[in-house]
Write a structure and sequence with these properties.
The structure is a homodimer of 159-residue chains. Chain A has 159 residues and is α+β, with helices and mostly antiparallel strands. Chain A folds into 2 domains: 41 residues, Winged helix-like DNA-binding domain superfamily/Winged helix DNA-binding domain (Arc Repressor Mutant, subunit A), CATH 1.10.10.10; 75 residues, Lrp/AsnC effector binding domain/regulation of amino acid metabolism (RAM) domain (Alpha-Beta Plaits), CATH 3.30.70.920. Helix content of chain A is 36%, strand content 28%. In chain A, strands 3-4-2-5 form a 4-stranded antiparallel sheet. In chain A, a hairpin with a 5-residue loop joins strand 3 and strand 4. In chain A, helix 2 crosses helix 3. The longest helix of chain A is centred in the first third of the chain and has 13 residues. The N and C termini of chain A lie far apart (41 Å). The relative contact order of chain A is 0.15. The model of chain A has no long low-confidence stretch (mean pLDDT 94). Chains A and B meet through helix 1, strand 1, helix 4, strand 3 and strand 4 of A and helix 1, strand 1, helix 4, strand 3 and strand 4 of B. Chain A binds a DNA duplex (17 and 17 nucleotides) through helix 3.
DNA sequence: CCTGAAAAATTATTCGC
DNA sequence: GCGAATAATTTTTCAGG
């Protein structure tokens, strides 16, 4: 297995550091150092290195969607009328600006995109679908699947 | 609009605090206080209150999936052979234990669950699908949609 | 590349107003 | 909620192995 330029060397201790920081982004270097069994100096250096290399992209508070009244999750399949490069780029750029769209992936299937949309309730979802999503560049049609229950989800970091 | 017991009162300043903390989970109370135009004392108190109320559920480092060699994303529709309560609970509990399953929702549609699965590459996905997902309790059939491009996604906080 | 300790900087907390 | 003083932590630095 050869090195890839975009994949810095990450050893066992780096992984331990990442795992702990992923679970507690506010842990101090002191405590983290204890937990991985090293002194603070190398741990601080490793964190800096992982940040500089773009492995750690940032730190965020996780918020409870329910407590914020954003409990409605729907998935939307989107089909475009034009899938030439320029159309895709226009669609991508427009989607990235929508706060209600939490995730969006281009899919190799009978539809072109799959998006996760978070709203207050189904009424607001209906509004977002009709007014915003359908108005995205080159959208031909959509199919919506509504979540009845969240079995596993990351804490939201958006408000 | 009446208060809901599970939705604490969140005013304009709380929202500002949450928005900033969601974007930078490591910001200090001092800087945060400046940004929201209050002194540190009430800002620290508000953060404690939001944490205690469960609005802020935690803090996490965001990691680059690509740099960690976890760039493969697939969505799987899962149909169960048994959708009685006990079967659903068994499925839910089993799914929550799988690190590859980043998200999972119960869906009101022709399939029962939609899951987002993250792996190293399609080879590993095939292995996870065949060995792990298909072996989850009561799984009757699955359909997979592979992401070709991530247009918008939250930083992963899992390793 | 790590240890350990000292120094410097920041941060969180407390309290009277 | 303010602002200052105090207290506690944290980050950084550096000599040494």
């Amino acid at each position: 297995m050869t090195d890839r330029p975009d994949m810095p060397e990450i050893d066992r201790i780096d992984r331990a550091i990442l795992r702990i920081l992923a679970a507690d982004g506010r842990i101090s270097t002191t405590v983290l150092a204890d937990r991985v069994g090293l002194s603070k100096t190398p741990v601080a250096a490793r964190i800096r290195r992982l940040e500089a290399a773009g492995v750690i992209t940032g730190y965020a508070a996780h918020l409870s969607a329910r407590k914020l009244g954003l409990g409605h999750v729907a998935f939307v399949e989107v089909r475009l009328s034009d899938t030439r490069e320029a159309a895709l780029l226009a669609f991508n750029a427009a989607v990235r600006k929508l706060p209600e769209v939490e995730e969006c992936y281009m899919i190799a299937a009978s539809f072109d995109y799959l998006m996760k949309v978070r709203t207050r309730d189904i009424t607001e979802y209906r509004r977002v679908l009709g007014e915003t999503i359908s108005a995205l560049p080159h959208v031909a049609s959509t199919s919506t699947y509504v979540s009845m229950e969240s079995v596993k989800e990351p804490g939201i970091s958006q408000i």
